[in-house]
């Protein structure tokens, strides 16, 4: 069991902690909060599908949030600030969250 040690709050360490947390939250908001859901992307087995993401920057990644078949989906090549490229091992329609 881990013993609890109270945080001793002096002004300098509290200010430093606050600044570090603000930086972390700001960085998370930049990537995740500026993402968007793209629905009804149809992928054909083994074919590369170009998807426009409209983020205005190169995406950090994507999460498949819905699919209508048991399929593996992956990036075929590196994305750019307009599009990314997906391939699937099975024909499938997916929705993704891109961030």
Task: Explain this structure.
The structure is a single chain. By secondary structure, this protein is an alpha+beta fold. It has a domain at about 35-99. Helix content is about 25%, strand content about 35%. The chain has one helix and six strands; from the N terminus they run H-E-E-E-E-E-E. It has one helix at about 10-35; strands spanning about 35-45, 50, 60-65, 75, 85-90, 90-99. Strand 4 (about 75) and strand 5 form a beta hairpin.
Entry summary:
The protein is α+β, with helices and mostly antiparallel strands. It has one helix at 11-33; strands at residues 36-43, 49-52, 62-67, 73-77, 83-88, 92-98. The strands form two sheets. It has a three-stranded antiparallel sheet, with no helix packed on it.
Shape annotation: elongated
Share of helical residues: 10-25%
N- to C-terminal separation? 38 Å
- What is the typical, i.e. mean, pLDDT? 87
Strand order of the largest sheet: 1-6-3
The ordered string of helix (H) and strand (E) elements is: HEEEEEE
Spans of at least 5 consecutive residues with low confidence: none
Counting H and I runs of at least 4 residues, what is the number of helices? 1
Radius of gyration: 20 Å
Q: Give the tally of β-strands.
A: 6
Characterize the biggest β-sheet: 3 strands, antiparallel
Structural class: alpha+beta
> Oligomeric status of the shown chains?
single chain
- Strand composition percent: 35-45%
